Please model this.
Amino acid sequence: MAQQDISHHYSRSFNEELGAVRNHVLTMGGLVEEQLRLAILALVSGDSDLGDQVVRDDHKVNRMEVSIDEECSRIIALRQPTAGDLRLVMAVVKTITDLERVGDEAEKIGYLAARLASEERPRDSYRALQHLADLVAALLHDALDCFARMDAEEAMAVVERDEAVDAEYEALTRQGITIMMEDPRTIRRVLDTMWVGRALERIGDHAKNICEYVVYMVHGKDIRHLSRDELPFGPEAGNEAP
Amino acid sequence: MKSRPWAYVLVRLVLIIGAAVGAGLIFGYPLAWVLGSLIAYLGWHLYHLYLLERWLRIGGRQPPRDAPGIWGTVYAELYHLRSRHRERKKRLSRLVKEFRKSTKALPDAIVVLNADHEIAWVNRSAGDLLGLTKGDRGQPVDNLIRDPVFVDRLRSGGLSRPVRIQSPAQRDVSLMLQEFPYGKRQRLLIGKNVTAEERLEKVRRSFVANASHELRSPLTVVSGYLESLIEDDELPEGWRDPVLEMGKQTGRMHAIIEDLLTLSRLETAEAEAEREPVDVAGMLALVRKDARSSSGSPCSMELQLDCSSGLLGAESEIYSVISNLVSNALKYTPPEGTVAMRWWCDDLGAHFSVTDTGVGIPAEAIPRLTERFYRVDKGRERSSGGTGLGLAIVKHALQRHGAGLEIESELGAGSRFVCHFPKDRLALECASGDAQDGPDSDQETPDADNVLPFRNMS
Model:
């Protein structure tokens, strides 16, 4: 009886640890989302102080990554998780790497925003960039929601939405080239905006990666680098977790 | 029979036993007869118990079977109980349905949280505004509402004050989230859509800013002409006083407009002030020097520095806090009175106080003191030339630094204004106080008994 109690307690505190680590990942995700939002706001409103603030705050994201990383190492060392628990820990380790990179991209956007604030604003006042940023922010947000809800089907849907981001980035690049050809004096500014677009496109890819980890976590299948037809299961073939 | 079933049962038992004894007397073996008849009686009861159990197992939905004796009563009572129970259940589910419908119609998002911040129940608006669904039950709420400000406040238990966040589900929608405890460590999280109010507030603020700005240029023209009129030697003698008065009033209008602009700047700025190191000690010395030279105030001023550290904040705002409080104190203190400034730190953070021995403030006026254009005494203060916005500026500037304002006062005895700055705003070793021209070396006074009183000279 006593032994049963101990094992019960043991597994419950293990569960709590897993819940806590998941919670920390999502807190970090919230921080990254906020950084991205502020960076874009700084760019669109031409607020160089806000851009600098985003650059300054990037260390918070980095610090969280390190602490979650340690937490995962400790769980692996002490608990030796198996099956679903192990997949969760692995997915967490990968997710925070991607989130940290998203944070770096947001920092880059903040830096560019501070620099662009002193330049002449383009005619469309970054409307195209804002649109791309909205798409990417929604993608990141939904990816983190999928992570919270362990929703693999929704995650697959989010993965496909990354194509829209790529198409938008393509259009933005083409537009940038046109503007530069029309008026070479804008080259410097447009190059900076293109860097912002590039950073946003990268964030979209990171969000996609996070979704793929969610699928891995739930189904135990690695869907990275597979085309849609090669997927081992469609959205309809639901629960075949090993 | 229905009214007293047990008497009937008793009578029947006695009759059976009597019949058995009678038969035993006639045929012999009376004990065996009694035993046999009791066993038969028990069997009959068991049979009916069996029937009852089967009836209950199919749900007791059929009307009760006809049963003799006590069993009939039991069936009737059970049936009655059951139908009453069903009636109550129907009423309850109707109530729950009504309740659900009404919470569905509520425009505010409602989330019930348990003690661990896990979602226990959400209404429909929570889906629209917060992106939460019924399937999120059991999920920690900060997994899905990830705004860092919200998460911080949730974990530190500071959600009893509302917090404003961007809706995670809809773009350009702002929400005011607030938590109310209820029941056994349950919490109700209510999210209100404040987008419209926020827009209105923005319009109001930009109106004040624009109006002040527009008033400034004509006023500059008027005061320019007035100034040249004052200096004009050919001005008829009867005109001098009115022109001087006009000059004074335009100066006041200038001050009001400047204060309005400062206020609207403070309001439109980000909620948190920046964290540049500010040398408070040097600033205090400067304010003291300025106040003395400009107003030529006759009362004596003391400065006590018990803390060497400065603040992390916006220099111009901290300056306007100090100078507004000091000039207020000077204004209401008679020439023989004293105005004392003190700067000290303790475990709670840093504090700055201005104490005067002036006229004091009536208790009922203290809560309204930081309202715009609020006057304690309608008649008195117009003459003293304040703008009526000083304390509003102080309040807003302090808010941006996470600081609070405490006001104590006694009529006729004086007032004390204390600003409490939180610990994280403290700059531990203030950077050498470069920008300030502190005339006295009052930066290195770390211990409390090292008091530097400055007496009014001149």
